Amino acid sequence: MTSSLDSNTLPVGERRFGRLVGDIARVGGGDVVLERTNDGIVLEVTWSSPDDGPVSRWFRAESDVFDLIEDSNLGTPATVRGVPRLLQFRDRMGFVTLLGCRKGGYSTRSGGPGSGRIRVQHAVFGGREECDYTAAVALRTTVSHLRNWIGASAWTTYESSETALEYRRELSEDVELGQWGAVDIVLRPQARVAEREESDLIELRTDLLVETRARTPVPWERHIRAHTALRDLLVVSGWHTEVGSIHSVQHPADVHVYRDGDERMFWRPVTSSQEKTAFRPKRRRHLITYEDLGPDGLRCWFGIWARLQRVIDPIVSSIDMRNVTPVALLAQVGPGVEALGYELSRRDGLSRKTAGGVTLASRLARILADVGDVLPFDGADWAPRLVRAYNGIKHANRDMPDLLDVLNAERECVLVVRAWCALQLGVDRAVLRERIREDAQSHPWVLD
């Protein structure tokens, strides 16, 4: 069940004036301002003097030492100082739970008034005061481009006459992915109608929500693992920056009771400070398609992603590195290729000690045994070139390699890992070979 609190939102540029909810001795009783800027969500607080309630203590640099001494002299238990990680806000538009709160900047006059800024990681709109939303029983996110990659739809077009079309809400089937990491995973299409303020257009949109559900409330990190894994799969497949956004959350104590006694939990909308927008290229070419995988292939990816984080994370993280040198890029992706060679040695039966002593050249040779025939370059030439470039940037006693060679070595490392992942997921070798030829990373960097 989704709550319909249209006014209880926080778009960029809006400032909401209200008060913190809770015991005055814990959160104070003054007015506060909740604001969302391009830099994130901020809560502005003020105090009239250092003794004006608990808020000023959240920002006092010396509070840890002197407050502990005060507690000791009074014979009272030491209390935790600093900004509470969870705060609750209320104004005329509604109730908001603020999660991941931490101290920002502040200014104050000695012995007088002051003001401070609290950085907020997530804001949950609506809900109940007694709900601790730091743990959720269910969570939904959206992952950029996932809907198109899956092929989900929520609207169907019919010809109602010779000159008119009729649009009907017809959702494609949910994709059940079973349980992973103690949460059940479902990809759930959702229809949405959006009106543009600057025109008379009404847009019929389809969202694909990644929904995870646990039996009892668990920290958000447990939920988000599945969402992150799906985002990383799209990056590996298409090599474009993809982002995930938290959409909504459920708590078992936040329910609506119907007359017949039936209970349904509300889906409470969430806004996060670090929300990003993914760039939408005109064309996307994927090494891996949903038709290749289906639900079983996605479950297989979850296992690969969990086991090989030291391989996948350095590669995927490199796509967000901007304005860095070729040396920094190769230093980022190189450990991922090294880790892949190590994991394959372990898979071949070598002990951890023996696999750890395998040379980089031998590790690359082992990787090529799996993927060499699908690559657009000669693997026998690639391995020694990478060894020279990688060792050249790692060791100060080696000659620094040409930066163009370094940049191409980084590109080839990424393509090798992407190809290896595609083969592990069951993509046909001949099909993959053709897709790689059309992939942008198959073309070397050259000086203009």
Describe the structure.
- This protein has 448 residues and is of the alpha+beta class.
- The protein is 34% helix and 28% strand.
- It has 12 helices and 18 strands.
- It has helices at 24-27, 63-74, 146-150, 220-238, 290-307, 309-317, 326-347, 352-356, 360-371, 379-394, 403-424, 429-438, and strands at residues 15-20, 31-37, 40-47, 86-91, 94-99, 102-108, 114-120, 122-125, 135-143, 155-159, 165-169, 175-180, 183-195, 202-219, 244-250, 255-257, 263-265, 268-272.
- It has a 14-stranded antiparallel β-sheet with strand order 6-7-3-2-1-4-5-8-18-15-9-14-13-12, covered by helices on one side. Strands 10-11 form a two-stranded antiparallel sheet.
- β10 (155-159) and β11 (165-169) form a beta hairpin.
- α4 crosses α5 (290-307) and α10 packs across α11.
- It is globular.
- Mean pLDDT is 88; it is low at 62-71 and 76-80.
In short:
The chain is 34% helix and 28% strand. The protein is of the alpha+beta class and 448 residues long.
What is the typical, i.e. mean, pLDDT?
Answer: 88
Element pattern in H and E: EHEEHEEEEEEHEEEEEHEEEEHHHHHHHH
Structural class: alpha+beta
**Rg, alpha carbons:** 27 Å
Give the beta-strand count: 18
Low-pLDDT ranges: 62-71, 76-80
Largest sheet: 14 strands, antiparallel
Question: What portion of the residues fall into strands of 2 or more residues?
Answer: 25-35%
Q: What percent of the residues sit in helical stretches (DSSP H or I)?
A: 25-40%
CA distance, first residue to last residue: 57 Å
In the sheet with the most strands, the strands line up as: 6-7-3-2-1-4-5-8-18-15-9-14-13-12
Shape: globular
Q: Give the number of helices.
A: 12
